[in-house]
User: Which sequence fits this backbone?
């Protein structure tokens, strides 16, 4: 039970509010980093952002998109539903499935694993040097 005058209750309310603000700042920073991941993946595979985030289901687009899912999950703390929002409002199960596909492909295809690892390392470096992203 909280009372408006009790110092303990005021501190507890402040801590809850501060925690909520920090969570929102973290989500915003991680979402901005996913935008950077999308831009990097689109550029690497010769796609536009619109194409990467669009509804096309051609392999030329879906493979890079799934790599974007995988990188987003590995390089951020966001849940798959939040990652799905960043990728054009897809269903979170699509994100989970795409991540599983990339994991499997990376085990089976060393060249692909090397390519994705290079993208991941480059993005990790960029995340560390970008102050607006390094909040989380």
Assistant:
């Amino acid at each position: 039970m909280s009372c408006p005058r009790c110092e303990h209750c005021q501190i507890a309310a402040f801590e809850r509010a501060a925690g909520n603000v920090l969570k929102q700042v973290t989500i915003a920073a991680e979402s901005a980093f996913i935008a950077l991941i999308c831009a990097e993946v689109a550029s690497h595979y010769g796609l536009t952002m619109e194409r990467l985030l669009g509804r096309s289901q051609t392999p030329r687009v879906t493979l890079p998109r799934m790599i974007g899912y995988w990188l987003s999950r590995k390089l951020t703390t966001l849940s798959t539903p939040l990652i799905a929002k960043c990728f054009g409002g897809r269903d979170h199960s699509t994100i989970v499935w795409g991540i599983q596909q990339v994991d499997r492909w990376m085990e089976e295809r060393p060249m692909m694993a090397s390519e994705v690892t290079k993208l991941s390392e480059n993005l990790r470096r960029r995340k560390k040097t970008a102050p607006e992203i390094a909040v989380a």
Notes: The mean pLDDT is 87. Residues 7-44 form the longest helix (38 residues).
